[in-house]
Amino acid sequence: MRVVHAADVVAPAHERARTSERTNKKRRSRATKIITRAVSFGDQRAGSVRREVLRREERQKLDGGADADFYSQPRFVTHVDDDFIARVTELYRRRLPRNGSVLDLCSSWVSHLPREIEYKKVWGHGMNATELGRNDRLDGFFVRDFNVNPKIDAKDETFDAVTICVSVQYLQRPEEVFAEIFRVLKPGGVCVVTFSNRLFYSKAVSAWRDATGYARTQLVKQYFGSVNGFTAPEAITDLDDVVDDSLFGKLRRLFARSQGDPFYAVVAYRNFRPIVADDCTRLIEDGECLTDSSFDSISD
Questions:
Q1: How far is Cα 217 from Cα 211, in angstroms, rounded to an integer?
Q2: What is the largest CA-CA distance in the chain?
Q3: N or C: which terminus of the chain carries fewer CB neighbours within 10 A?
């Protein structure tokens, strides 16, 4: 494993968000249509921070000590239960492109990527080099405290996907971090943020500590919304393919969630979300999806 030490980088200029795009490239023999959802605001550049989400007092932590000291001792544990981890893995399976390049931010000794799926490369970031060195899914990593320097050691448009699992609550400069995520994502790249109600309470920012699950979800959506060029963020709390909306089904889900760590995810894309033929069942009524028969008509 190759270890990359943290180094300051200069944030380059960002390209403007695209307003529409189509592609005729076939991936795994599936027709693809790119549906634009991002909106540019005035003359602001894509990837620029257009507003601050947190007030100064909302960025504060109960423990004001250095985060580097707090995370200096490796912790080879998982902070959420197996059911939560299984949901994270399933969400990655559905949203992260196969054979893509993945950046796992705020990672540790384990990433929750599907074992059966190969990725072109998996790069990691965290606060403890010993933990990251134990992570067998990483091809390399860098160590950095984003609350001191919110820069990502990568060139523009490097990754197809960025993940943050149960760590977004510790970011004191989330707007800058999410702008960096936008920068290193390729156009159409996805960012998946997952979290529960578990946390190091003294190290979470004030805006997060005592908020409800709904309020925390809205906060992460605002983090995405603070950066010009992300698609409208999508909140996910249930991954069932077929949701039973009967009284029994609702009670079953309520009981299951009350017994374990609640699952929350917020997902957004850089500029647009690529829609593949497998997703068309949700969009066919709007005529937004292409079929194999109509694919040839735009391939010129």
A1: 10
A2: 61
A3: C
Q: Encode the chain (300 residues) as per-residue pLDDT tens digits.
A: 444 444 333 333 333 333 333 333 333 333 334 444 454 545 578 899 999 999 999 999 999 999 989 988 887 566 678 899 999 999 999 999 999 999 999 999 999 999 999 999 999 999 999 999 999 999 999 999 999 999 999 999 999 999 999 999 999 999 999 999 999 999 999 999 999 998 898 999 999 999 999 999 999 999 999 999 999 999 999 876 545 567 766 666 666 666 688 999 999 999 999 876 555 555 544 445 543 333 333 333
Q: Domains for the chain: give ranges and CATH numbers.
A: 2-298 (3.40.50.150)
Question: How far is residue 109 CA from its own chain's centroid?
Answer: 18
CA distance 137 to 92: 14
CA triplet 81, 87, 89: central angle to 5 degrees? 105
What is the pTM assigned to this prediction? Answer: 0.76
Q: Output the six-digit token pair for 74.
A: 């490796």
| Residue 288: other Cβ atoms inside 10 A | 13
Contact between 95 and 75 (Cβ < 8 Å): no
Distance CA 134, CA 14 (A): 34
